[in-house]
Design goal:
heterodimer, A: about 575 residues, mainly alpha, Helix Hairpins, about 90% helix, about 0% strand, B: about 160 residues, alpha+beta, OB fold (Dihydrolipoamide Acetyltransferase, E2P), six-stranded mixed β-sheet, five-stranded mixed β-sheet, 4 helices, globular
Chain lengths: ~575, ~160
């Protein structure tokens, strides 16, 4: 009984009660149906009795009609066929029906015994009618007296017996019904009593069985509610409550595990919050540094902007200067051209002078020749020619002097022409130089204008950079604000983590769970430790490798370097 | 003025010979003044075929035909273009009149015999017989030519033909 689960127990209990109810109702039903059957039989027997009496009367009428026919000579209108009279019709259908087969033996015997006298009666009637039709009234009377009357008497007797039998049956049924009614009453009383007893027993048992366990469970749940997760429910049952206790235990262990996890997590969160806080501080510092750097950048950019502006200004000035220089150079070019023209004129004049000098030279030459000839002649003339020789010498002297002067002039002219040529060349060169100067100045002007436009672009670029720096400044400010917020958030996070830890202290967990927690925390920290160990182990490994051999050492150091 | 003095001196002395000096290239040459008939400027002359290269042609000098030779070419010096100052000396050589083209005429100078030195001896293979001597005048030397010996008789005959 204890091994069953509650559902089955309840099924069993309510099944027993239902069975009792069913038994009771069956008893009531059976007895009441018996009573109603008895009543029905009484009514049926009543009906049967009156029917029999009607048939008796019909046959009495039939006999009276026959006697009237014999004795009075009245027409006989009744049937002579035993199957066509009222009784006959009913009787033969009844005898073939199921009803008859189920009839009691006494009644059935009596009903069977009815057939022969009834048939005899109607056959007798036919014989009487035959005798009467043959005119044998006496034979008819005799036959009537000797056959028909005894038959109808017998038939009446059987009818009476049937009626009596029916009355007996009714009486018997009435007695049966009374007996079964009393028995039913007793039975119903007994079953009700049993039912009450059973119900009380079941209620007691079930309440005792279930409530104790439920109370135990309630205690456990109260413990959980208080945060005590160290106690388990001790309930060794195989039913639903046992299952419930088991699940509750599972829940407790899960919860304590969860609490442990949460405690660990809250510690982690607290640590993380601390780290975030530290990081925020650093971030804040860096943001400040960034801001100051940005400020410096902005100042530098401003300086640059002013420099660029000055540059542009200078470029403009240079452009103007270049233009002036170009104008001047052009003027110089004109002057050079004029100079060239003047030099040409000088050159022309020199040439003319040279021509004249040529003429003078020619005259001097001729004079010289004449003088020489005169000298020759004078030499030939001897003493007489002396005076002439003197004159000739003077003439020759003059001629030579004029030739020398002409020569000097020629040289001077030549020199001046050469100088003019040289001057021409120089002027040409200077013209070229001026032209190239103009070109250069143009180029300079172009370059300067390019510089100017570049400076303009630079200025716009610097503007953009300035804007960007301003934006960056804004962003840095926002960053600073965010960092502050974040610092506040991390602080509150730390507080929350502390709160959480405090809250988690509410839970009391078994050593089992706390042990698990410690395992977990140590497991979490282990990797870091092992990492450190690995890092420490690396150096000695390398030292060992160095000791191993020179080649290895080279490779190792190279690798190391690459790693570095 | 010095030259004038020299001439005057020569004239007064009557002892020294007078020379007409001319230039060929860098050097100054002299011929006796009495050999010189006339000094004329360069003028066109008629070229004569199949004569030695130094014979340039013939000149019509106031009706008489005078052969002209280039002294540069005769002395195997480089040919020089003739210009306005080129001079032709009309000389009397062995009773013949010839024209000699020189670069320019310098002067008529008086040289005393003291001023004239003998021609220095070169090796025997070189012809120097047409040089009469070296006239010293101030710092420079004047090559005094013996004009009669410059031209060989065959050459003179050739000039006659011309």
């Amino acid at each position: 009984m204890l091994k069953m689960n509650i559902r089955n127990k309840l099924y069993l209990a309510f099944g027993a009660m239902i069975a009792l109810l069913v038994i009771t109702s069956v008893i009531i039903n059976v007895t009441s149906s018996r009573l109603s059957e008895a009543n029905k039989a009484v009514i049926e027997q009543g009906d049967f009795e009156s029917q029999m009496k009607t048939f008796q009367k019909q046959h009495a009428d039939w006999i009276n009609a026959l006697s009237d026919h014999i004795f009075v000579g009245a027409e006989f209108s009744k049937t002579l066929n035993p199957r066509e009279c009222g009784f006959g019709k009913w009787y033969y259908s009844y005898m073939e029906s199921e009803e008859f087969k189920n009839e009691e033996p006494e009644k059935a015997r009596l009903m069977k015994s009815l057939e022969e006298p009834h048939r005899h009666l109607h056959e007798g009637g036919a014989s009487v009618i035959e005798e009467m039709n043959a005119g044998h009234k006496a034979n008819a009377m005799k036959f009537y007296q000797e056959n028909t009357i005894p038959v109808i008497t017998k038939l009446d007797g059987i009818y009476s017996e049937l009626v009596d039998n029916a009355r007996d049956v009714i009486e018997k049924r009435k007695v049966d019904a009374a007996t079964s009614e009393s028995a039913q009453r007793t039975l119903v009383l007994l079953t009700t009593l049993f039912g009450i007893l059973l119900g009380v027993a079941i209620a007691f048992f079930l309440s005792r069985n279930i409530v104790a366990a439920v109370q135990q469970m309630v205690t456990a749940i109260k413990n959980i509610a208080r945060g005590d997760l160290s106690k388990k429910v001790e309930l060794n049952r195989s039913d639903e409550l046992g299952e419930m206790a088991h699940e509750l235990n599972n829940m407790i262990s899960d919860l304590s595990k969860l609490v442990g996890d949460v405690v660990v997590s809250s510690e982690s969160v607290a640590n993380a919050a601390d780290q975030i806080s530290a990081g925020n501080q650093e971030l804040s510092q860096r943001t400040q540094e960034q801001a100051s750097a940005l400020e410096e950048t902005a100042a530098t950019i401003e300086e640059m902007a002013s420099t660029i502006k000055q540059n542009a200004e200078n470029a403009r000035n240079a452009n103007m200067l270049a233009k002036d220089a170009s104008d001047l150079a052009q003027n110089g070019g004109q002057v050079v051209e004029e100079t060239v023209a003047s030099m040409g004129e000088v050159s022309d004049a020199s040439k003319k002078i040279a021509d004249i000098i040529d003429v003078v030279n020619e005259i001097a030459f001729q004079t010289n020749l004449l003088a020489l000839n005169a000298a020759v002649e004078a030499a030939r003339a001897g003493e007489q020619g002396k005076g002439f020789a003197v004159v000739a010498g003077e003439v020759r002297n003059l001629a030579q002097r004029s030739a020398e002067a002409a020569k000097e002039i020629q040289e001077l002219i030549k020199d001046s022409v050469g100088k003019v040529d040289k001057g021409n060349k120089l002027v040409e060169e200077s013209g070229k130089t001026l032209k190239s100067i103009i070109d250069s100045i143009h180029k300079v002007a172009e370059t300067v204008s390019e510089i100017s436009s570049a400076s303009q672009e630079q200025a716009t670029g610097i503007d953009q950079v300035n804007k960007a720096v301003t934006m960056m400044d804004d962003v840095v400010q926002q960053n600073a604000a965010l960092v502050e917020e974040s610092a506040a958030a991390s602080q509150s996070l730390a507080l929350e983590a502390e709160e959480l830890q405090k809250s988690m202290a509410f839970f009391i967990v078994t050593n089992d769970a706390s042990l698990k927690r410690e395992e977990r925390t140590s497991g979490e920290r282990k990797p870091r430790l092992t990492l450190i160990n690995k890092a420490q182990q690396r150096e000695p490994a390398k030292v060992r490798a160095k000791a191993a051999g020179a080649e290895d050492l080279d490779i190792e150091t190279e690798e190391e370097f690459e790693e570095f | 003025m010095d030259k004038l003095k020299g001439i005057n001196q020569a004239i007064s002395n009557g002892a020294g010979d007078q020379f007409v000096t001319f230039t060929l290239g860098e050097e100054e040459y002299g011929v006796e003044v009495l050999k010189v008939q006339e000094i004329i400027g360069y003028q066109r002359f008629t070229k004569v075929p199949s004569v030695p290269s130094f014979v340039k042609g013939v000149l019509n000098l106031r009706g008489s035909v005078v052969p002209v030779l280039d002294l540069r070419l005769k002395f195997n010096m480089a040919y020089r273009e003739y210009d306005n100052f080129t001079v032709i000396l009309i000389l009397e050589v062995q009773e013949r009149v010839i024209g000699v083209i020189v670069d320019a005429v310098s002067d008529v100078v008086n040289l005393s015999p003291d001023d004239i030195q003998q021609t220095p001896d070169f090796s025997s293979g070189i012809r120097v017989d047409f040089i009469k001597g070296m006239g010293r005048m101030d710092e420079k030397l004047i090559i005094i030519l013996d004009i009669d010996r410059i031209l060989s008789s065959s050459e003179l005959a050739l000039l006659d033909v011309a």
